[in-house]
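User: I'm writing a tutorial on reading structure tokens. Could you give me a worked example: one chain, its sequence, then its tokens, then a sentence or two explaining what the tokens reveal?
Assistant: Sure. Here is the example chain.
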Amino acid sequence: MSLLASSRDTSRWTFEKGAGFYDRSRIVNHFLSEWDNRILALKPATPLLDLGCATGRTLVKFIENGYTDVCGFDLSLNCLKILRGKFPDESPSLARGFIENLPYRNESFSSALLSGVLHHLEDPKEAFREIARVLKSSGKLFIAEPQFPIGIRQFINMILDIYPVTGDRRFYTPEIVTKIASLCGFRQIISLNKGISYILVLERC
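And here are its predicted structure tokens:
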């Protein structure tokens, strides 16, 4: 993959190639399951859109917990094929594309998720504006992200500026995420920090 490729094209190439990684990795799933449980405890309203759903780790848990009006969206066709295979009788609504250009009507959803996705985005502002468009008035955006000490985060981001080979683009503090989102029609209503990760709940103004 060329280093001159856009971050989102690099991400798509990465996840097409390694679509089954998340289902196979016990360590990753153990770490990310905490995010899922904390988001579930916040009881997002439906209709719900899982952005960057990959092979459906979070989406499956919502369905197992009684959610029915949920949609999955991802840039990887291979990830979506794996997810569809988990529901042989009836699949949740799935779509493929980029978050910056969602194929949904205005005000279609009450909640949206970005779980471990934000650091892959080339332009968070563009994504936030598009998410705000498809959320209903007072709709909620749930964001879960890794969190690093300042020196480590700055070093990682410096490397990613030069060599975003896996599609990772930039890691943000919750304060920076809230500031960027506020320019796109969101306000923060919840911030949960736990060491190496954080969860934000933003409301569409």
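What the tokens reveal: The beta strands are 48-51, 70-74, 93-96, 109-115, 135-146, 186-194, 197-204. The chain has a mean pLDDT of 89.
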